[in-house]
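Two quick folds needed for the group meeting slides. Do the first one here.
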Amino acid sequence: MLTKIAKRVNRTSIRAFSTSCWGGVEGAPADPILGLNEAFKKDTHPNKQLLGMGAYRTDEGKPLILPAVHKAAQIILDKKMDHEYAPIDGQASYQEKCATLAFGEGSSIVSDNRYTACQGISGTGSIRLFFDFMHKFFPNKSAKVWVPTPTWPTHKGIANAAGLDWAEYRYYDSNKRVFDVNGMLEDLDKAPAEQIILLHTCAHNPTGCDPTQDDWKQIFEVCKRKGHFCAFDNAYQGFASGDLDKDSFSLRHFAHNYDRVAVLQSFAKNFGLYGERAGCVHFVTSDAAESQRVSSRIKQIARPTYSSPPIHGARLVDVVLGDKDLTASWHQSLVDMSSRMNSMRIGFREKLESLGSTHDWSHITTQIGMFAYTGITTKQVNQLKDEKHIYMTGDGRISIAGLNTGNLDYVSEAFHNVTKHGPLGTD
């Protein structure tokens, strides 16, 4: 009898565990940006163009290793630097140079140690560290993360992953194709007090529309009066205009007049260190003692997440910013890259106008940074992909860095052809 029962139990167990453990897992949709790259790679058309990826390209359409970075890599080899673990929060010299770059030479925030810094895994990792910290320690437990509409889609995903809800504030006027300062001010003012406000330091992604310095001052006054905590996604400092100080006006104005500020730093774009994942998260504090306490808690979050950060990209930044000549070379690269992108903006607009387009394309040249928010519809985006093999995100955002003298005519003609018989998405 016991033998028969054992056999029945054994057969039942086999049936129960014969189904795959992951049989019920549904596939995730393709990433709206990285998925473009995969589709582009599979396309065999000779004239295919990738305008969706946020990575700088030369006029020959090639990735660029900045001269200063190349020399820094050689210095690292010549000095036979080791591959030992970095501290949980990264090397102290790297942290200080990152802070000086963000807050400015001679900043009292840095000299008085009124900040804490932790090396993050580029911008995305720095944002995740920040959100995890805020979820655990920000006093207002009902606070939401307020993001501009539109924004980089992953902002929302990271907030959700960290256990935070998000809300949106108005940012872009799609009818006029300009920054909506009044809408933003009204929404931040009407939001409950002590919210977490995510701001783009410069070169807003995806619109390329930035507030003026006077706009930033008004935004600051509202945020300070409401007690909001302001976090600056600082992915394009120096890369937007070629001027590090000009591009950092917003975060410096806030940080030197208010201590509810964090900076989420990335060196993917302005150093070309996309795959090296070098970044840093900074919190402004009231004094050095508070900095130590905050630092201990950030490290407590980082330790079980990735233990210690990757060392090579941070070391490249550290070497460049620690050498006067390499720093000067880097500054020139920022001017060169931003100037090339600006020339492509002008060229794109002029080509469209010369083809007889009746649309107003002036927004292409008033926007700034890596991206242009063209205003074309999702239908027109798909038409460009299907008929001309031009890849971009569904909202009509293109990477200006993907344009060059070799493809400008082809792209401009394609845009003209899909828009000449009808309005743009916001006409």
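Then this one, please, same format:
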Amino acid sequence: MIILLRRCGRLHEANNYLTRAESIDRRVNEQAGYHYCVGLYSRHINDIGKAIAEFNLARKDERWGHDALIHMIELYLNPDQEGVWEEREDTPGTNGLDEQTAANLAAAETLLRELEPKAKNALKFKVLENNYLLATKQKTLVSKAMASYSAILDKDPDYLPAVLGMATGFMVEKSEHKAKNLLKRVAKMEINENDGEDYEKANLLLAKFHIDKTKNDLAQDLCQRCLLHNKSSSSAWEILGLIYEKSQDYEKASECYEKAWKLEFEQSAPIGFKLAFSYLKSKKYIESIDICEIVLTHYPEYPRIREEILKKAQLSIRT
């Protein structure tokens, strides 16, 4: 039900079903299936901490544990849902990773070992394991993952999780041209129900490449294709906003960012930043300030939005 509501752009309705389950069964908090559903809902509304906590309560269950573990691993590997190749502003630690990222990777590795004997699909497990190797950004481990992806694609060139994984690896290796060429085959693929998330991610990464080459029409087509299959794709709306922002059409950019912001349940700092910036450039100073304050409430250690947008919007009102 949660998956269907999300695809229809009605994810907010899922909370009603969860609340109803609580009122019908007083012992629902003892059921792993309930915690799995709450974890799934929390993941999709960008409440990552709660999602991990809820999946953790389901991970030992025979029926729900397998999928709960997969979600936990994915969240530890990429809690902010950004590309693993993207540089972060944090002070680097061991292997160029900040302490929190290093702790997340350690947790993911532990959960991978727990999942391994329970894995229902050896190929999907291998892809998940390879994604962990890429996230370490260690050259030898990245090379190991790329060799594994290459072997998978030699047997099945259209296996989408491996296509996306290898493209991600090329990005980590800073070989964007190779990643783009590999992703071109995704445009010719038909969506598979089991690969919906990977299909969306691959198309949206290709859309970003098109934007870099000012092929905005192609990028927009890919975003619309994703929205056709998942009306709750905040990333698709975010990229559409980026297209308008680059053309300095801040009114339309803010409209797209507004939709992305709402689909993220006002929990995404990067989208909040872009929306506040578009409001600022559109001279909607009050709206810009409101978004800044929401972001800073959730992420008080997010200084960029205070310095680059909030103070400028406040100054503009005074003058």
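Slide caption for protein two: Residues 99-115 form the longest helix (17 residues).
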